[in-house]
Design goal:
The protein has 423 residues and is α/β, with parallel strands linked by helices. It contains 16 helices and 14 strands.
Length: 423
């Protein structure tokens, strides 16, 4: 099938042709006709399947037709909610690309930056608003945004919204939307709470499902190293000695861990940068731009920060930490091997993560190839439950001692300063 077969208007086809897009992806082929026919859609699809175009293109077409009949001050007609700044910017870029010849306007709002430019864009009038929940609610409370005229509502990455604790915010936003609207709901996975939320948003939806979360692309080669926790840093350096790995997206389970890994790599003369939720927007965009330009070899990311990062022809993904949710592994390695390109996913498992590896292999229904030529083989055994409890007690004890000593030292310092002031 070609895009021309989907009854799209000439301005959109022209914009697609500019990008050399001729054939829709499976989700685009399924979802675009449904949205054009004004059906609510429940889409189960991962990032990288082309779902942004699946909702952006038909919304643009609807708005273009409406625009021909209504020439007045622009009011927000379409609202897209997404969990992260990076994904919001990417969706905004997609709307700009596909609406290039339609004279429609879109803008993106998100937190972490001053609101002035965003407020000015809203005052000038927009047709499509792409937003993260926090900044949207903030500007609504200030009176800069009203949702009374919304005709098209999209909730993207719903499962990640749940992970990030945004569900309460989403419910507040939904309460402000007109009851009569077309709603589109996309999520990579469908846990119970997400299904429950979709029922409150959608009206008799048509379900579209592609690329189940249990499948990994056949073009991705998967390897795993089993090692000890204290050896992971040296093992990573050994892996990166392969000069073919010019661009690597590496996953850490925590923000602190991401920073630490990036610092260690820089000390080892490997160009690296970390990207996570505690980084400022400018820092994150700079790191991503440097990575895409080849100025940074290793981009260390947390799962949430990596959502929305779309890098053409990315070949290498490294799981420095094994995710405890098996579907997350599938999402991570799916960053490589896109559009038929070859990809390589390398995972590093310490003893406590070995059970996660088994869960992942069960989900994807295949064994991950174990690297035998490993200079840092796993010799430690996973802790028993009783050992874990003892270790947790020891950690809490050390933490209390640390803060007690710090407070004691602080008290002494205050006493010295006080005595000096009295002199």
């Amino acid at each position: 099938m070609q895009f021309e077969d989907l009854d799209l208007i000439e301005p959109i086809l022209k914009a697609l042709d500019d990008q050399n897009y001729t054939e829709p992806t499976p989700i685009q082929e399924k979802a675009i006709p449904l949205v054009l026919n004004r059906k609510d859609v429940l889409g189960c699809a991962q990032t990288g399947t082309g779902k942004t175009a699946a909702f952006a293109i038909p919304i643009i077409q609807h708005l273009y037709y409406n625009q021909q009949h209504k020439q007045h001050h622009r009011k927000i007609k379409a609202l897209v909610i997404t969990p992260t700044r990076e994904l919001a910017i990417q969706i905004g870029d997609s709307f700009s690309t596909y609406s290039k010849y339609t004279q429609l306007r879109n803008t993106v709002i998100f937190g972490g930056v001053k609101q002035g430019a965003q407020v000015n864009a809203l005052r000038n009038g927009v047709d499509v608003l792409v937003a993260t929940p926090g900044r949207l609610l903030d500007l609504m409370d200030q009176g800069y945004i009203r949702l009374n005229d919304i005709e098209y509502f999209v909730l993207d990455e719903a499962d990640r919204m749940l992970d990030m604790g945004f569900i309460h915010d989403i419910r507040k936003i939904i309460d402000k939307l007109p009851h009569k609207r077309q709603s589109l709901f996309f999520s990579a996975t469908m846990p119970g709470k997400i299904v429950e939320l979709s029922r409150k948003i959608l009206n008799n939806p048509k379900k579209v499902e592609v690329t189940p979360a249990s499948s990994t692309a056949e073009t991705i080669q998967q390897y795993i190293y089993f090692t000890n926790r204290e050896d992971k840093k040296n093992l990573l350096k050994h892996i990166l000695e392969d000069q073919k790995m010019k661009q690597v997206l590496l996953f850490s389970k925590t923000k602190h861990g991401a920073d630490k890994i990036a610092r260690n790599l820089v000390k080892q003369k490997i160009k690296a940068a970390a990207i996570h939720g505690d980084k400022g927007q400018n820092q994150r965009q700079k790191a991503l731009a440097q990575f895409k330009a080849g100025e940074v070899r290793v981009l260390v990311a947390t799962d949430i920060a990596a959502r929305g990062i779309d890098i053409d022809k990315l070949q290498y993904v490294i799981n420095y930490d094994i995710p405890n949710i098996s579907e997350t592994y599938v999402h991570r390695i799916g960053r490589s091997g896109r559009a038929g390109e070859n990809g390589v996913a390398i995972s590093i498992s310490e003893p406590e993560e070995n059970s996660f590896v088994k869960d992942i292999e069960k989900l994807i229904n295949q064994k991950i190839s174990v690297v035998k030529d490993n200079p840092y083989p796993q010799t430690d055994k996973p802790m028993t439950d009783s050992e874990k409890k003892e270790w947790e007690k020891e950690k809490q004890k050390r933490k209390k001692e640390f803060f007690a000593n710090r407070n004691l030292q602080g008290g002494k310092a205050k006493s010295r300063n006080h005595s000096r002031s009295r002199r």
